[in-house]
Amino acid sequence: MTFSIGRRQFLVGTSALMAASAFAGPAFAQDKRMRLAWWGGQARADRTDAVSKLYAEAHPGVTFDTWWNAFNDYWPKLGTEVAGGNAADVYQMDYRYLVEYAQRGAIAPLDDYIGKGLDLSDFDQDQQDGGKVDGKLYAISLGANSVAMMVNTKAFDDAGVERPTRDWTYEDYKSRAEAFNAKSNGMKLLADGSASEPAFENFLRQRGKALYTDGKLGWEADDLVDWFKLWADLRAAGACVGPEDQALDATAAIDTTMIILKKAATSFANSNQLIGFQAVITDPLDMINFPRAEAGSGGGHYRKPSQFWSVNPKSAMLADAVDYVSFFVNDLGAGAALGVERGIPCSKKVRDALAPTLDPQSQIALNFVSNLGDLLGSLPPVPPTAAGEVSTQLTTKSQEVAFGATTPEEAGPAFFQEATDILARAS
Known about the structure:
Blueprint: H1 9-12, E1 19-23, E2 32-39, H2 42-58, E3 62-69, H3 71-84, E4 90-93, H4 98-103, H5 125-129, E5 132-133, E6 136-137, E7 140-141, E8 144-145, E9 147-152, H6 153-159, H7 170-175, H8 177-181, E10 188-190, H9 197-206, E11 212-213, E12 216-217, H10 221-236, H11 243-246, E13 264-270, H12 274-278, E14 285-288, E15 304-305, E16 308-311, H13 318-330, H14 332-338, H15 348-354, H16 360-370, H17 387-402, H18 408-426
Parallel strand pairs: 2-3, 2-4, 10-13
Antiparallel strand pairs: 1-3, 4-16, 5-6, 7-16, 8-15, 9-13, 9-14, 11-12
Helix pairs in contact: 2-14, 10-18, 17-18
């Protein structure tokens, strides 16, 4: 699954098909209408609308207009709305784009609201810090998560191949491809993760490197050559899907991932997405960590804000928007409605109240994030401006390699230079 948007799309993004829903509060109270925007699927929309209902019941006079999209379609539309001055009052923000939106004045600093409409009294400090840019708080984490592989357990059992364990390396997937393919009816072990920035970052962190360091690339061209060669070998061994199949996953929508289309038994994702994935597939799913780069390597994972709420600084109801965000992350009823679909709650009181009530999929997500062990490393710095454009170019370059238009040895140095130039222009 690829997570990307170009920097230029921030202001000139093209229109995307809007998946819209609307929730109206009591018919007698229409004096405050709050607009919300987020990316996600139907399960997330249902849970978000449930929280909005609770908020409206506690705040008569507030109603809601909402829109949501798949991740890759969300950013062009949001960028267009921000450029046009008609963005939602509250909109979902991603760690990758936080610096860009903050530095362009597209999201409001929230420090002055802490203790005055925004309650962070028992909020995890690392999740607070994750929403800061240059020491100012611009975003409120909606849950802690980690990258994870979605695993179709039935596919492994039907093929008579053991399910992945936390110790599996990329080589372990490769070595089991022949046995799996013999009984899988065309399904492969892995989605092609070569275009996945989170997968590449995880690979780098296991090598003791970083995606970014002090606003610059934290790796060398040879690292990317090795990454592209790893995936070329996996394709050649029949361990991962071919480029034609992987191209079907163009929007980062859950419905078009390789695991949901039953093209692959595992897909790269995030721990909080298990609920959304399980909602659209009948086969039972589990999750496991990203493969190890080599036996015994660790440290690739980290507890990341799954996504944030940020507030539009031009909102006509700024204080109400902040109050809604505070309610969303602190109210026990809201926490019950949300579960862990957006990640593990950052408020201790919400987390403690929620844990005993979780369904099996939510328990899997909670246990996974809580027990990363030697895989867990520190949270990296917020990515620099234009990180989204770099991610877009990674997608392009990885597809060129997958389709045979270039080689790993050519693509690694070429992309390294492109990424360096992108960051230099944006600095």
